[in-house]
C-alpha cells in the first residue's frame, strides 16, 4: 500500500508540475504510457509521427479551391483522430504551445486585411500545425529518440540523396535547390549527423561512427548544392563538435574523422574553382556587392546573387511598409500583393515573398506580431542556458542546442510556410518536453527469473 501511495504522489506531481493545461479527467489517462512501447519497437504513435515529419520533405501538393493541400495535412488529421481515440479528453496543452497559439491568433486575424479567403487559408494552416504540436507533446516519449530518430535520420538522408540525384539526372551539376521541400533535407541532415557524431563519444557504435564519417563529407555536398543556410549551420556544427567532442573522441572516431577529411578536403579547392560555388561563397562574405542588380529589360537582368538582390530589395521595401503601419503591420500576405502592384516592371524573382520570417512578421504583423512570435523562441533560448547549467547528460543539451540553432537559422533565412512553422513550434515546446521528461518517474521493469533466483538466500534454494 505504501508503494501504491508513493506512485500516486509521483503521478500527481507529474501532471501538476509539467507546466501544461490539462483537459478531461481519468478517462484515457491509464493509456498515457501506451504512446510508444518500451520493448524496442515503435507503435502507431511513433510510426505516424515519423511518417508525418517525413512528409514535410515531399514535393507534392494538391490544389483545392485555391488552397494547396499536402500529405502533411492529411496525416495531421489522422493524428487528431488517433489522439482522441488514445487519450479521450485527457489532453495537455504545454505553455510553449499556448504561446505559439497567441502568435497564430495574431497571424490569422491579420490575414483578414486581404479578405475572408486569405483568413481561412491561414487559419487552417496554423490549426494544422497547432494540432501537430498537441500530438507531439501528448504522445511522444523517450523511446522515439531511441528507436524512431535513427529511422527518421535514414529517411531524411534518403531524401537528400534523391534531391541530388534528381538534379544531376536533369543536368544540374550544381545548385541543387530547385525542389523546394526536399532541399530542407540538407540542413536537417547536417543537424542529425552532428547529433549522432557527438553521441559517438558516449555511445560508440556503427551508426554513430558512420555519422562521424559522413559529417565532413557534407561540406563538398553543401558547396555544390548552394544551400547557404545549411552551409552556415555546418560551420556552427563543426565548431560545436570540436569544442564538445575533442576530449572524448575514441581512436576509432579519430580514424573515421581523418579518413573522411582525407576524402573531402582535396575536393574543396577544386569545388571553389567552380563558378557557381565561387559565386555562392562570395555572396556569403560580400552580401551587399553581390546584390547589385542590373535590369536591361523585364526578361534580361543580372546580379552576382539574385537571392541577395531579392533579399536586399525585400528588406528596403519591407521596412518602408513597416514604418507606414508599425503596430499591426500591413496584413498577413499583403507584402507580396503590394510589391506586385507597385513594382510590376521588375523581374518576377524580385517580387517574391520575404525570405526571413522575422522580417515578414515585422512587416505584415507589426510590433505586436513580432513580440508574440519571439516569446516562444526567447523562452527556448533561456531554457537552453538553464538546461546547460542543471543537466548532467550533455548529449541531450547538445541535441536541444542543435534544434534551436538550426531552427533559428531556418526562420531567419527562409520564407514562410508549414515547413517553417513546424520547427518553430517544436522549438517552442522543447522546454515543456524536457520538463515533462524530468518529472515523469522512471519505468520499473520486473527483474528476470535468473536475477530473482540469484538474489534469493541460500536457504531458500539460491546459490
List keywords for this structure.
two-stranded antiparallel ribbon; 463 residues; 18 helices; mainly alpha; disordered C terminus; 5% strand; single chain
In short:
The strands form three sheets. A two-stranded antiparallel sheet has the order 1-4. The protein has helices at residues 2-17, 44-55, 71-87, 95-110, 116-139, 143-169, 184-199, 206-225, 228-245, 251-264, 267-272, 275-285, 306-324, 334-342, 357-390, 394-413, 418-439, 449-455, and strands at 20-23, 62-64, 67-69, 91-94, 294-297, 300-302. The chain has 18 helices and six strands.
What is the topology?
Elements: H1 2-17, E1 20-23, H2 44-55, E2 62-64, E3 67-69, H3 71-87, E4 91-94, H4 95-110, H5 116-139, H6 143-169, H7 184-199, H8 206-225, H9 228-245, H10 251-264, H11 267-272, H12 275-285, E5 294-297, E6 300-302, H13 306-324, H14 334-342, H15 357-390, H16 394-413, H17 418-439, H18 449-455
Antiparallel strand pairs: 1-4, 2-3, 5-6
Helix pairs in contact: 2-3, 2-6, 3-5, 4-5, 4-15, 4-17, 5-17, 6-7, 7-8, 7-9, 7-16, 8-9, 8-10, 9-16, 13-15, 15-16, 15-17, 16-17
Amino acid at each position: 500500500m505504501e508503494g501504491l501511495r508513493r506512485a500516486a504522489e509521483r503521478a500527481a506531481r507529474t501532471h501538476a508540475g509539467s507546466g501544461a493545461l490539462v483537459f478531461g479527467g481519468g478517462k484515457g489517462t491509464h493509456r498515457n504510457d501506451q504512446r510508444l512501447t518500451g520493448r524496442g519497437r515503435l507503435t502507431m504513435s511513433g510510426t505516424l509521427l515519423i511518417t508525418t515529419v517525413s512528409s514535410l520533405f515531399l514535393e507534392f501538393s494538391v490544389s483545392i479551391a485555391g488552397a494547396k493541400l499536402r500529405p502533411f495535412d492529411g496525416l495531421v488529421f489522422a493524428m487528431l483522430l488517433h489522439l482522441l481515440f488514445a487519450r479521450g479528453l485527457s489532453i495537455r496543452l504545454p505553455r510553449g504551445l499556448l504561446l505559439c497559439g497567441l502568435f497564430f491568433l495574431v497571424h490569422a486575424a491579420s490575414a483578414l486585411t486581404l479578405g475572408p479567403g486569405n483568413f481561412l487559408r491561414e487559419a487552417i494552416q496554423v490549426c494544422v500545425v497547432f494540432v501537430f504540436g498537441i500530438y507531439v507533446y501528448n504522445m511522444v516519449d523517450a523511446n522515439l529518440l531511441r528507436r524512431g530518430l535513427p529511422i527518421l535520420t535514414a529517411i531524411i538522408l534518403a531524401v537528400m540523396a534523391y534531391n541530388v540525384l534528381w538534379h544531376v539526372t536533369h543536368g544540374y551539376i550544381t545548385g541543387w535547390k530547385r525542389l523546394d521541400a526536399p532541399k530542407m533535407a540538407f540542413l536537417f541532415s547536417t543537424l542529425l549527423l552532428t547529433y549522432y557524431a557527438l553521441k559517438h563519444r558516449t555511445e560508440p557504435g556503427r551508426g554513430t561512427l558512420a555519422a562521424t564519417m559522413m559529417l565532413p563529407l557534407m561540406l563538398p555536398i553543401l558547396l555544390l548544392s548552394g544551400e547557404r543556410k545549411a552551409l552556415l549551420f555546418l560551420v556552427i556544427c563543426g565548431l560545436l563538435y570540436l569544442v564538445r567532442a575533442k576530449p572524448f573522441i575514441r581512436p576509432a572516431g579519430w580514424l573515421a574523422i581523418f579518413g573522411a577529411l582525407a576524402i573531402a578536403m582535396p575536393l574543396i579547392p577544386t569545388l571553389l574553382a567552380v563558378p557557381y560555388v565561387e559565386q555562392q561563397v562570395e555572396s556569403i562574405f560580400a552580401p551587399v556587392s553581390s546584390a547589385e542588380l542590373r535590369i536591361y529589360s523585364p526578361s534580361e537582368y543580372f546580379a552576382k546573387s539574385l537571392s541577395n538582390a531579392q533579399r536586399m530589395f525585400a528588406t528596403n521595401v519591407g521596412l518602408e511598409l513597416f514604418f507606414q503601419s508599425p503596430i499591426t503591420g500591413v496584413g498577413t500576405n499583403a507584402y507580396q500583393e503590394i510589391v506586385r502592384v507597385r513594382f510590376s516592371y521588375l523581374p518576377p524573382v524580385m517580387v517574391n515573398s520575404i525570405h526571413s520570417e522575422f522580417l515578414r512578421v515585422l512587416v505584415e504583423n507589426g510590433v505586436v506580431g513580432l513580440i508574440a512570435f519571439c516569446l516562444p523562441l526567447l523562452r527556448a533560448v533561456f531554457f537552453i542556458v538553464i538546461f546547460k547549467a542543471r543537466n548532467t547528460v550533455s548529449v541531450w543539451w547538445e541535441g536541444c542546442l542543435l534544434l534551436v540553432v538550426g531552427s533559428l537559422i531556418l526562420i531567419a533565412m527562409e520564407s514562410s510556410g508549414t515547413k517553417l512553422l513546424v520547427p518553430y513550434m517544436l522549438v517552442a515546446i522543447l522546454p515543456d518536453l524536457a520538463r515533462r521528461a524530468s518529472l515523469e518517474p522512471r519505468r520499473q521493469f520486473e527483474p528476470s527469473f535468473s536475477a530473482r533466483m540469484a538474489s534469493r538466500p541460500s536457504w531458500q534454494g539460491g546459490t
